[in-house]
Amino acid sequence: MGLSDYAELLQTQLELLRAGKRFALVTVLSARSPSALKAGSKAIVEEDGSTHGWLGGSCTTREIVDLCVRIMAGDGGQFVHSLETCQGGVVEVLIEPFGERRKLLVVGEHSELIASITEIARVVGFHVTHLSVTPSDKAEALDRLGGFLRSVRPENLYALVATMGSDDQLFVEKILSVRPLYIGVVAGKKRAEAIKKWLLARGIPVELVERVRSPAGIDIGARTLSEIALSIMAEAVKYSNTQISTGLVASQPATQSSDLFVDPVCGMLVEPLSPHFTIIEGKRTIFCSEQCKRVFESNPQRYSPEANA
């Protein structure tokens, strides 16, 4: 990459940051031949999979783009990944997410528990919003909650209701209406069951009610308020990381395009006009590289639907 290329990428970064858009900066740290990627190459990947700059190697680049989209959905620091190219080389890339962080909404009157949750959440990378609720301002708090929910993207929202049994079902119902990634309620088992029964009676779909994690938190044998806060945030982080590892993200256009085909050997997405293809029994199979084509032709039965059933 020349200086003009770096300058253009930097300008793009600034424009995306000013616009409040989420993106990832990809840097090739090392590349072992055979590989079209070169150490020092950089590119920017936006949330929708669009790219700025050039890394080289369509097969590996598409895998990197998909990885960036997944990482941005989960939001978490820097990521160094080692990838094997379709030609048999190895590249190491650094992926740095920028822009909007995961948002944690905490609903409830200020308490030691909420203070501990806020502290832990910020340490692990959440942007925390505390919606204070007191018995005298419940109606106003519900209005403020509605305004907040309209201002955020639900696929980036994690919510915790800690009103300690004081009309918590009303806040849960309102939050569920936007389908957040995670919603937990600080409550005992009896109260948790009562909330879910109330939601079902209100006509809330079962699949939405089942999203409510209550009692909130994973079982770590917590005894103190700080330990309870830790268990709750551990559950939220678990949900977040599950989005990355399973690819459960809101938008992955690169993997949903009807114009792309899956290489049966390596699983990469391939352009329909790829020069690497074979025709067996009248069926055309497309590959990302000549190497994948050779592997397939050596044992086509291995990649048949019946063999993978």
From TrEMBL:
GO molecular function, one term: oxidoreductase activity
Highest taxon, organism lineage: Archaea
Name of the featured protein: TRASH domain-containing protein
Signal sequence annotation: none
InterPro entries, per database record: Ferritin-like_SF, MoCofactor_Util/Proc, RNR-like, TRASH_dom, XdhC_CoxI, XdhC_Rossmann_dom, YHS_dom
Pfam family, one: XdhC_CoxI
Domain TRASH: 263-300
Coiled coil spans: none
